[in-house]
Amino acid sequence: MTFQQQLRIPGPSPLPERVIRAAAKPMIDHRGPEFAELLADVTAGLKRVFETDNDLVMLTSSGSGGLESAVANLVSPGDKVVCCVCGNFGERFAGLADAFGCRVARLEAEWGQPIDPDDLSHVLSANPDAGVVFITHNETSTALTNNLPALSRVVREHGRLSVVDGVSSIASMPIEVDALGLDVAVSASQKGWMAAPGVAFVSISQRAWEFQSRARSPRYYFDWAEAKKQLVAGSTPFTPAISVIYGLQEGILMLEEEGLANVYARHRRLATATAAGLAELGFGLFAAEGYRSATVTGAVAMTGLDVAAFRTLLRERYGLVIAGGQGKMTGKMVRVGHLGFVNDGDVVQGLWAMENALDELDIAPADGRALAAAARHLAGEPAGAAV
Length: 387
Ligand SMILES: *Cc1c(COP(=O)(O)O)cnc(C)c1O
What we know:
The protein is α/β, with parallel strands linked by helices and about 375 residues long. Helices cover about 45% and strands about 15% of the residues. It has two domains: about 5-10 and about 260-380, Alpha-Beta Complex (Aspartate Aminotransferase, domain 1); about 15-255, Type I PLP-dependent aspartate aminotransferase-like (Major domain) (Aspartate Aminotransferase, domain 2, 3-Layer(aba) Sandwich), CATH 3.40.640.10. Strands 2-10-9-8-5-3-4 form a seven-stranded mixed beta sheet, with helices on both faces. β6 (about 140) and β7 form a beta hairpin. The longest helix has 22 residues, at about 260-280. The protein starts with 5 loop residues before the first strand and ends in a 12-residue tail after the last helix. Pyridoxal-5'-phosphate binds near residues 10, 89 and 138. Pyridoxal-5'-phosphate binds near residues 11, 63, 64, 89 and 165.
């Protein structure tokens, strides 16, 4: 027997039937009128979700290509930059800046802890020559959401340029690019947008364009100026992932049919329920209280649990696919994704599978307590606060 797989990793996320069908449309000319219309419609939709009037370009790449484009377009070799690092994706930003020859001032927090706005203020004061600050909004590796309003306020007060990795947050939690004054924000199709991987999006403020015109890093495929020039003409510099963009158009339609406020409340509710269930099973919630992510829940395994064997059992017997730890947390924790096309019943199903798998592995009896804990937070309850 084969299962309908329950994909509960923090991206790629499950595809709704509607998105699959939309992505199966016949191919079109990416220099023709149909594509110009598609591009204009999707770009406008992305801007509504980003809550920005800034320019926004789509790049044909995974999310990391969007991050790389920010480095390539904003810095010159030898520039000092500040990278906020509290997990694997913060490391990626620092690694990119390093690869482009930047002098990187790292502001680090323990894994599972958020970046402290006061610490950021000190680092910026100590590095007056650092023009660009790289911030991970939702650190997917530790399942933690940083306090973006506070961090971006510090960056603004110090007159620096903010670059925000919102790959696993935008479309699933509020971002308010313009209200927060974020100069550059990046997301990607395969996370909360409910589309397949392959397209990254980058919003670019007027001030970021000023940095862009001065920066001397080598860039060609990811040149924002070229992307904007073509966007105005209704196309893209290179052949785009047209099928992914069709899927994305449907994903945005679904987000707006549900209403963004409802989408955000649903993600918070699922996160609260998942955290309650995992804690009841004996896992230790990893991210600091008050900073737990709405899109992914990370939890440290209890003594005696072989995480790799647990995940294999879940996949093979229950059709449930969850993620393990990354970097230094490999083998030590599980990460359960609940972003995009995921609802209350999916969370119940996932916890049911985990409870039974733990029983099979002789860790704890399956007595329904994780389901009961989760159910207290699910349908009918108002959107919960962060657990
Ligand atoms: C998924 C993700 C990315 C992008 O990863 P890709 O595999 O390149 O799409 C970047 N940042 C965060 C926080 C992510 O969760």
